[in-house]
């Protein structure tokens, strides 16, 4: 796995390099500050598999740099782990809003670092497997189907507003018990997603999710939330602050916008996606068995029949 680590503290970079090599990660590039990062990423022929960014750096912060990296097409889905000595909730929230996948605190614990990167390695391996399948599909779209299950939280193409589902789960873990009461959750469900999954190709299903994602982005421009595709036709989001969320109005607006796609679905003999928008739900003292349970409750409140998958949290 190829790793890029960025920190303005050269002593810490040496410590990080030693820890990474100790746990078996030798394919490293270290940069002493944010200034050259975008240039290195755009000029490099190979894409890094994982990026480690310090949050506190002079000039451009790690949070700002994370956003710039996410804007690069080759790094839309690359795991980005923030390294911070801060316990500042606001900075951690901003890091996730700018595309961070996870974070780890200083001083670094070797076992925790190993566990985080082990989870990243599994994601990287799965991503490479899917990219290989996509390439095969591009060559022989009728002969080589994409392989994923209905409940799998796949990456939705061109859904720039969306973050990876494991990153959304990681964010909930960072909140702690007290923080869980400061956020709410919502779900946007494709009611007939299973029909499309059964009668269409996997590529058609993924394209359908991309269409829905574009409608969601268009309708939620002013909403402050982290949103992800969770599988089973369900998009789930964490509301970051006060919201004027009106399920009925949003549902009407989204379905109206989906009508623009109707000629495509008619030509492909697929059902036009029907979108259901759920209400905002919060936590209670009796519903904290696991942080991501709030996502299940949002999906249930939206009336989805499928729920969301129980996938591992990095």
Describe the protein in words.
With 314 residues, this protein is α/β, with parallel strands linked by helices. The protein folds into 2 domains: 3-121, Response regulator (Rossmann fold); 145-301, Reverse transcriptase/Diguanylate cyclase domain (Alpha-Beta Plaits). Helices cover 43% and strands 14% of the residues. The chain has a 5-stranded parallel beta sheet with strand order 2-1-3-4-5, with helices on both faces. Helix 3 links the parallel strand 3 (50-54) and strand 4. Helix 4 runs antiparallel to helix 6 (165-180). It is globular. Mean pLDDT is 83; it is low at 309-314.
Features:
314 residues, alpha/beta, Rossmann fold, Alpha-Beta Plaits, 2 domains, five-stranded parallel beta sheet, four-stranded antiparallel beta sheet, 11 helices
Low-confidence stretches: 309-314
Main beta-sheet strand count, sense and barrel state: 5 strands, parallel
Radius of gyration in whole Å, from Cα? 20 Å
Strand arrangement in the largest pleated sheet: 2-1-3-4-5
Q: What count of domains describes the coordinates?
A: 2
How many H/I helical runs?
A: 11
Q: Determine the strand fraction and express it as a percent band.
A: 5-15%
Strand tally = 9
Helix percent reads 40-55%
What's the SSE pattern? Answer: EHEHEHEHEHHEHHEEHHEH
What structural category characterises the helix and strand content? alpha/beta
CATH class categorisation of the largest domain: Alpha Beta
CATH topology of the largest domain: Alpha-Beta Plaits
Distance between the termini: 17 Å
State the shape: globular
Mean pLDDT figure: 83
